Description:
This protein is mainly α. The protein is built from four helices and no strands. The protein has one domain (5-98). It has helices at 5-33, 36-49, 55-67, 79-98. α2 packs parallel to α4 (79-98). It is globular and about 60 Å long.
Amino acid sequence: MINDPVSESFLCYNFAVIKRIIWDVVLVILAFTCPWWVVLVVGAGGVILFSWYVEFILAGALLDAIYGGTARHWYTHVIHTGLFAVILGMIEFIKSKIFVN
């Protein structure tokens, strides 16, 4: 039973999901407690480690919701979301050119 390939792949999948959830929780905690650039660095690490880590964009939206405030210009409310979306796209593009699957 221990050498069963189905159970081994299931455990590997669960470990990957658990690792991603832990990274998400850390990212949300950092969004509330640290400056935006710390969230940017940790989130970019998540984009590098995981495939299409869209939680990175959600962290940008969370930062905009928390720190966006009342500004005169509309773009100040979505600056982190847009920045994080562009960085996600750039890193995924670079990953597709570097890693051969």
